[in-house]
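Team,

Forwarding the record for the chain on the shared tracking sheet. I've put the sequence and predicted structure together so nobody has to dig through attachments.
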Amino acid sequence: MSTTTSTEEILRIAEEIQRGGDPYEVPAELLEEPREEKPANRSLYARIATMTVAEKIKLALLGNREARALLVRDSNRMIARFVLRNPRLTEEEVLGFARNRNLDSEVLRDIGEHKTWPRNYQIRHALVTNPKTPLAIALHFVSSLHERDLRFLAKSKNVSATIVTQARRILAQRGKM
C-alpha cells in the first residue's frame, strides 16, 4: 500500500474495519488495555511507525490507551481524527488531548464540536486556553468560563488577543472588571 492514501480510501477502510470484515492485522496486545505495566520487546512508537495507513486506522478505532496517545499525534490528520471515534476513549484522555499544544487544530475542532465532551468544564477551559484551538471554537466557550478563569484569560499572553479581548468584555458586562 502506498504511503499516500486518499480521504475516500481512508473512509472506506474505516467503514470496513468497523463492520469487522477487514484483512488488516494489528497485534492483539495493542488492542487490549494492559492490566499491569510490562516492558515491550519493541517500542510502541517503532511498531506504529512501520504500520500501513489501514493498520493505523484499525488501531486508532480499536487500540488501547497507549496506542491512542501516540496515534492522536500522527502526521496524517485522518488517523488522529479516527482516534476520537474509538469507543473506549475516556473524557480524561480527551482532556489531555485538549491541553496538548502540539495537537493538530482539526482534532481540537472535533473535540469542541463533539456533542458530549464540551459539557465538561475542564475540557472547555482547556480548549479556550490552548493557542492551537481554532478561534471560532475558543470564542464559543469563553462566555461559559468562571470569573476566576476569565480574569486569568484577560491577563494571559499565551492565547489570542481576540480571546483576551472577549474575556475582558465579558468581565466588564458582568461588572467584575
